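Fig. S4 source data, part A: sequence.
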Amino acid sequence: MADQLTPKILDYLHEEMPHDMYALDFEKQDKGILLQILLKDNSIEALKTQELSIKVAFGKYFKSSFQRVEVTLVNDTLKVKKSFEYPKENEHFDRCLHSLKVSVLGLEEIKDSYKKLEFLYMFDTEKRDELFKIFETLNVDIYAQRDYIRTIMYDVFDLNKRDLILFLRSKLYIRYFKRSNQAQSSGAERRYEGRSADELELLFKEMFPDGIWEDIEKSLPEFLKDQLNFQRISNENFIKNFVPAFMSMVEIILLEYIRDQDRDQIQGLTGYVLRIYFDKILTYTAENLLKHILLRDKNPDKFVK
């Protein structure tokens, strides 16, 4: 026999409930109406035998907003219980995280408006700050806030481990991993996405006659705290991630300057610029690590051991 209850409940939830509803607000929003509708065609006893269909419907509905729920029929009332994302935290904290998910889902719906390159999205300062504003009533430091945002964005945008989320230059970036199209090339062509070093040198000198180290140096403090923070990162993760992370940082800086007609060269130019300044970037990074060690921070000390 076909399950008619699940689609009926789903129709009601989609049509009558706020799309961004926090699961524990269901009873307040519903006011018992759904159960009254279901009782027109079923007795309470009959509904109890179809409780699995009710659970499936609610599970599907709240899954779209990344909420996990359990629904039961208790004393002629539909009771919704929500699994907290972080069980040790309270309901207020969980509600804030839900608001964050709703905001990130909104960004995902309009992401094409913020597409800068085939593999790069840039959300402006206003959009970034809207996410941080959600944490105003929570005692959470800025780096933990960024971690929560990252975790949710990885889920909502269906990112994989090689994709990056960066907080840089007052903006928020999603940088999808892009495999090189130059697997059959060799030498400099492979390094620079098929562009010759001479071609990229001309473009670089035309765009930055005085170089671009000043911009890179200004970005490094924030970047290191966010992406390669020695107070938090392991030696293994640093080795695995530092090259693609620095590549993304340079790419974002170049994006602010490169002309529209030259955007197809940005990956090659990024590789070229990183090669020029790689030693300086590593020296700056090593000095940053040394400062943490001199301050007797535990993680950096473990990092070098």
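Fig. S4 source data, part B ends here. The mean pLDDT is 90.
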